[in-house]
Amino acid sequence: MEISLLQQMYKDVLVGIPLAKESHHYTSLLNLCVEQSPGRDESCNRMHLPSTNGGIRSHQDADMSNVVVPTTADTSNSFANVNSSFCPREVMLLQLTLIKMMVAKAESQEIEFNTRQKYCEIFVLLLKEAKIDSKLICLLGSYDQLLSHMASKSLASLVYFQLKEENALNVTWLTFSLKTLSGFPANTQVAECLWTLTTIIKDMLKDEVLTKAGILKKMLAPLDAVLEGFYNSILFHHFDSHHYTSPYSEAANNLISFIDLLEALLASRIELELPLRCQRVLFLKVSYILKLISSSIHYLIKKKLIMFLKKCVLYKSREDANSGSLFLQNPSLYEDMIALSNAVLQVVNLAWLNRILLSEKASYFGGSETVPGDGTQGGTDQTVLRALSLVVLKALEFKFQNSATEAEIRGEFQSSMSQLLLFWRSHLKASLQFHPVVHHCEWVSLIFIEQDDDMWEAAKALLLIYLKFDRLLHDAADNLSQKEEETWNFLTHASAYNPHCIFLFFLEKIAFDSTVLLDFLISSETCFLEYLVRYLKLLSKDWHQFVDVCNGFDTKDGTFQSISSVKQEKQSCMTDESLQNACCEPEPQTLVALAASHSYLVFTTEQGDNEVVESNQSNSLICTDSTSLLGSLQSLVNYDSSEDSELESDGKECLVNTKQVPLNNEGEVRIRETVCSYTDDKQNTLKCEVLPLKQKGSNTLSCLTCTASSDNVIPLRTMLYKSIKCLEELQKAISRLQRRNLFPYNPSALLKLLSQVEKISKNVNPQ
């Protein structure tokens, strides 16, 4: 074979030039030089190629009894005319690349019909005459990882091509898959088989034109029983955690490959009206995965399993978003989510979370070590912490949405939430030294604030649980007594699911910036729209509770402040000189929760948290927060740039300086450095200045310095005013975008709810 001919064929296929010669000519160029001994099965065990250019790893201890290694004469005959600069391995890699490329071109509508027909003829000859599928299966067993990977990709492409174009399942590949998976654990070389099946499913899901249900069922149905048996075998019957302590072992490679396959099966489930058993087994037998997560397996595998479990609990949300189907109309999904939720909550109540050892180092791109001079302290893996937390919250949400009475769910809910709160505290001990948490509802924003989609999934889950409890309570008794009402309110705070607290703590973290909320509403990556609609409906009916919680944030004796505040007996004016010398360092905070007027529980942290911090200067107050202003300083869009974005409040003057900084390839971040001064009717002033972002090496992202007149005290209803003002600004921003047809969907229902809240606030709390 002339290597120049193969190279020319590659160039022609790459640019889409029609292949002029006969199909047999090109078939001979693509025919792989893989020899098999008589009587050997398709798996070929482990195949070795001539070791040229150091391209293949040495395996001196491997069993070579059944492996055929081409002799020098065979190799010279097969590659007689190959340029000396090309070794057989490189030629084979070029052939595999060409096969993969031609399959992609044959499926593309941009390529001329005659050219695509030519490619199809070549594939038919390769499969029927050259037995290319058997040779690719043999290559899967190569110790050369690149050859094995490319063979898997090419085989998956050809199997999928046959399914799509001929509506036929490749018998050679099916036989190989059945024999390999059913032979486990006697046959431990299963990773390559799993790779191929996973790639076929992913290619199928990426096809936007194909009706997937038919061919997906055609492919998976023969493998259904074998896949369920393999699930039981690899995760339970033959599982030994000692084999999985290294991510480079064959056992770990098999397990990681199987987790990838389970993720593909989960994603493909939505395509079938009645899912197969292999698509449901991960829900019905999730206890196997839960045991693995708390075992001594390598952290990489543990993390992969936890992230997969998170995808399982979020599957319903994705299905509803994609198809708009009603959950109760899908009996199999209902049963599966019940089984998953029961299994998760059962182990959580048995202290399962405490047995999970999370990494003590933060995750870094490309490694696990801190960059010298970065100043970042290692800690618990926040990604895994959030994922585990969300798994528990979503399990609670689903379990209790399908419960009939309040009594049957209260005990289990309180038990699960207490376990979760202990889990959070145990893994954030370092953070609590600087930011003590005294109110349980603040944990939600602290844990999830760095991941928007997880944040609103968690908030929505807790909101739905609250609404379920509230409905069951009022169904049982039309009018609750004052004591029952107080007990109910106490429990919502004690178990960290009071929706008003959660929402207000989040607003604090984003410095009451309405543009951050607008970003979430416009984004399709979060469920914030669904959450906000549900919460605004609750707010309209539960206004008095919202006001009570706001008062709890503001009251002097029952201070319900954020972790960025410092309590003082008297707040006085900071001079210009002290402003210039102010340091943005975290100070100890005093945080006590809940309005005393309603006899709520007062939550405290470690000893010393309740000490009042005295300032070195009696006339100064520095309020520091290293995280709450990040969202407001990095709003994705400057929504105030429209032509009629006039000042929307009396007595407010704002000076806005905008800088544009590139943010990957998605656009620009408008970082706003805002200096605002507010003046009320009594000429009492409150000035807020946003100082520059942190300098290199500083641990503080931003510093908010607040000053008040020495003769006046900040009004008690600060939290109520700020939160309502934020919602009003959000309403006006949405209205402006709607008038210009710039809002991505019809926000009429949302605007109606926001207007209703504004009307209630003005009627109940006239200014």
TrEMBL record:
Source domain of life: Eukaryota
Protein name (Swiss-Prot/TrEMBL): Lines homolog 1
UniProt domain Protein Lines N-terminal: residue ranges: 196-550
Pfam families linked to this entry: LINES_C, LINES_N
Lineage: Eukaryota, Metazoa, Chordata, Craniata, Vertebrata
InterPro entries in the record: Lines_C, LINES_N, Protein_Lines
Domain Protein Lines C-terminal: 724-758
